[in-house]
Request: fold
Amino acid sequence: MSTARRGRRPGAPDTRAAILAAARERFASVGYGPTSVRTIAAEAGVDPALVHHYFGSKDQLFLAAIEAPADPADLLPTVLAAPPDQLGAAVVRMMLLVWEGPARPAGLALLRSAVSNEWTAKLLREFLVSQVLRKVVSTLGFDPDARAARASLVASQLVGLVMARYVLRLEPVASASPEWLVAAIGPTVQRYLTGEIALP
Amino acid sequence: MSTARRGRRPGAPDTRAAILAAARERFASVGYGPTSVRTIAAEAGVDPALVHHYFGSKDQLFLAAIEAPADPADLLPTVLAAPPDQLGAAVVRMMLLVWEGPARPAGLALLRSAVSNEWTAKLLREFLVSQVLRKVVSTLGFDPDARAARASLVASQLVGLVMARYVLRLEPVASASPEWLVAAIGPTVQRYLTGEIALP
Reply:
């Protein structure tokens, strides 16, 4: 069961912090997909059951590790319910809904940290790819290379929208209504998702 | 001539630094357009001729103040020589040319600073708007509100491309060839420049 290889015991006050530190290290160095709760537990010197007890699923552990401003699992079903030709607009609308709400400070903190710290950049990339973009793009039936190309193009526009609206405050993007942004930027995301995009 | 109201004299070792500090303060607080070399000189306590002697034009003073990675005046003529229906591709190609070259570390430093410091964010915004975007968009003959809307949408995609390729390193955008990015993202910038975009 518990290997306690760093001398920590389950239930010790720093157990939760040790699990989060191990999770950050593994998710950033190996990526979300190949990392198991078992590996993180071993790295933290605790029983995997304790990781589940503290954090629930691997998804939820990941969100805690990056201090995610919102849980995509709560939001994606609404996006994925959009008709395929409305998916771009639905993605932009959902992103703005999150960023216009109480999650914005945590989102900005994550972005700031990612820009100055390569480790956080890796975690944010893993978050965007594994928790958001891959789930949206996988509904469209492309092969894996095309999915990755489309997902990273979508990310380039969404991250840029956040930067222009909330960080650089470029007008009128900074103070425009969400629906104007959906109308202006939704078609870009739609083209990246379903339009003619050659493989790199 | 020199007002020397802070006790500095022209030619004192800190004169150049005082001019740059005054320039950063004025450009960030008032913006590029309304700020004159004369105001900056008065703020720094030096003669305007000395500002011109050290930095040349107001444009060049601004580039020095934000430690700009490249001078748009050297690059924009090539972009603006593109046919109107190729302008989006030309903008993306030029931006990648700058970022693939020796200017990248300075560009990333500016971006990092802008994300964590509101003052630098204002300067970077002024730089993008006054030195780059306004000059590209003004060739297309829209009214001022439409120009601002189009310019800020273009910025949202270009800043996001920089973030995805050089900061978050999202694949395949991170390692794709510049020409693939021009083909994939050029049409987005083209639509923001010349397509159907409602006013906010």
Summary: Residues 1-10 of chain A have pLDDT under 50 and may be disordered. Chain A touches chain B through 47 residues (CB under 8 Å). The longest helix of chain A spans residues 144-167. The CA atoms of residues 1 and 182 of chain A lie 51 Å apart.
